[in-house]
């Protein structure tokens, strides 16, 4: 089982490692990304031996809206109703980070030079981390599509990968956003109705119950982990301030206290100032990703239930038509279509849900192991090597 | 698949020896800050695994498993609940002062609510253990209430502040805190308040008796020894805030001085600057540490919430092995992380309290400097008045008015005496302040060292716990 390799430019391990089958026929990755004023430009790099493409290897530049367009085109495509549509990547959000950088710039006069440079470095690192994360999220989306036996053949996908001009996809305007909103309302109301109906098929009944519960709990865990990380970040900011204050104090003091203070500052920064970036974020990103995936799986179940309801309605209509002996042929065709649609969805849905579970278990395992390894590495790097030798009074 | 992965960990916390340092308080001392001392004090605690160079950005290595050797885990993972407040009392400290070794330990304990309703108050037991001949016995205790402490401070302040002694300020009054206690609210925050106050009172008394002059003061002796104490009145003025106001008034008077003091002594100028800087730095640090304690408490709460949530998630997970792994992650987070955070927070809480004490102490120090200025002012005023009187006397002599002349001569003699006294006062207060400042700095350095060492020691311990946590995570996650 091959996991996707990253280009050397993005060296930070990807937040969520999703184990996927890939083969030489189609490999997609994001080889570069550029952050401009208010948008991010991703360089999508494709390597393929498929005859559909003009070349074997090529790159295009895409923006976030184009990813969303691709995702929405999948969702709206009836043919794909029986598949878990890979969740759309979240919008790149640098607002918070940018605001902090701005505030730092404004407050430059009120702090010492060391403090300023240190804070600036911290914020820049944060910015970089967010940037890498958003690149990773977009890449995962593309890879999931490329790995899916049916979706990888989608024409829009090929256009997305190959067409080297701007796709001229505009974001949804207000009217369309409102339409989406109502669609969602109807869907969730429907969903409640549909969820109440007990499914004949054991497998799907079990999946429905499981997914509902799982989704809610992942949502809760994700929210709580976010809060935990926020507290951690606040504490880390305080620690940085304390470290710089101690440093100033230490340099003023002309006694041996100075040395001790310097040591404790080093200890503070190495051990305590461990920002939630690596380990907690890993967990948080994992949870967020599976929140979106489990929602996509729920959507699949919903579509199947919808199709089932349509099928049952078509059956009833057919019976009525036969009873009245009117429009029988029409009703028959309609019923056959519904039946076919429903069966097709059910069949692919079953496989999709099984795959989902396998992927989920593998991803959690991989991430938990990486989490622990990172923690261990962190622990090794800290006290013994740097702090103790300098603790001589 | 079950893989056993172990990491060699040397157990046993390292305790850092608190070495005595001798400091020359006057003037800076050139310190070589980067001594290469080959002796590693913590050889016992180093790991056998080879260490990478300290880098901030941690990158994943390719190999998944660390070194494999048998493991000896520390005996108890779960230490009893950390009572963060008792951490704050200082240990007995030996001090050589004028040949008489300082051997005294005061503890404030057993807070007891006396009375009911709005007239209720907390009575604390003040126990003294000492071998000094100053006291009637070696081990005795009395009951005191908060206003008694304030009363003691006000008496000492009125006697000693204006002649240059740095009198330690008493703990702050708190209307909100006390009202909760009076009303009888038995919840965690009011318990915390009482504990905080008890600890602060203990530190206050220890600081006061460590001062060789204050220790011998009859008011202090009476406070510690006599079972009955006259009730201190008008504690409004006796609170720290009241003293602060007094000090501020002195500062105002200094600002209004028309003649700028000609500081002939560079030492005072430098020290004044030093304390001004220290004041700023400590206030800033105090604010940051208080903020950290608060955020850490939040973190502790949020970690607990997350742990519960992760456990729930583990429960609903279909795959049994993953489910187990998630539940174990939750358990690990809850037990070990929580303890780690509570412990670390306890240390910072002590630091925060100490910083608060020092912010108040420095205000007292600055007040003492201002009093010196006032003394100088008085002396100068006396001299100017004397000069005027001399001129007046000369005039009288010229105008030949014998009766008035005699009166003027008498007044002048009296004034001369006052001026001489003023000069003596000024010299005395300057000398006292020098001594006091040197003692203060020594104490300050000692206090900070103690706290920092305690913090570093606890860091070592939590590092051990952290390693064990990591090992557990690796073991369970690989074995599913």
Automatic annotation (TrEMBL), chain A:
One of its GO terms (cellular component) is cytosol. Keywords: Coiled coil, Protein transport, Transport. The keyword Protein transport applies. GO terms for biological process: protein transport; retrograde transport, endosome to Golgi. InterPro entries: AH/BAR_dom_sf (IPR027267), PX_dom (IPR001683), PX_dom_sf (IPR036871), PX_SNX6 (IPR042136), SNX5/SNX6/SNX32 (IPR014637), Vps5_C (IPR015404). It comes from the Eukaryota. One of its GO terms (molecular function) is phosphatidylinositol binding. Residues 20-167 form the PX domain. Residues 304-331 form a coiled coil. Pfam families: PX (PF00787), Vps5 (PF09325). Involved in several stages of intracellular trafficking. Belongs to the sorting nexin family. This is Sorting nexin. It comes from Cyclopterus lumpus.
From TrEMBL, chain B:
It is found in: Cell projection, Lamellipodium; Early endosome membrane. Keywords: Acetylation, Cell projection, Coiled coil, Endosome, Membrane, Phosphoprotein, Protein transport, Transport. One of its GO terms (cellular component) is early endosome membrane. It is a peripheral membrane protein. One of its GO terms (molecular function) is phosphatidylinositol binding. Residues 102-231 form the PX domain. GO terms for biological process: early endosome to Golgi transport; protein transport. Belongs to the sorting nexin family. The keyword Endoplasmic reticulum does not apply. Residues 398-425 form a coiled coil. Residues 17-37 are annotated as: Disordered. Involved in several stages of intracellular trafficking. Interacts with membranes containing phosphatidylinositol 3-phosphate (PtdIns(3P)) or phosphatidylinositol 3,5-bisphosphate (PtdIns(3,5)P2). Acts in part as component of the retromer membrane-deforming SNX-BAR subcomplex. The SNX-BAR retromer mediates retrograde transport of cargo proteins from endosomes to the trans-Golgi network (TGN) and is involved in endosome-to-plasma membrane transport for cargo protein recycling. This is Sorting nexin-2.
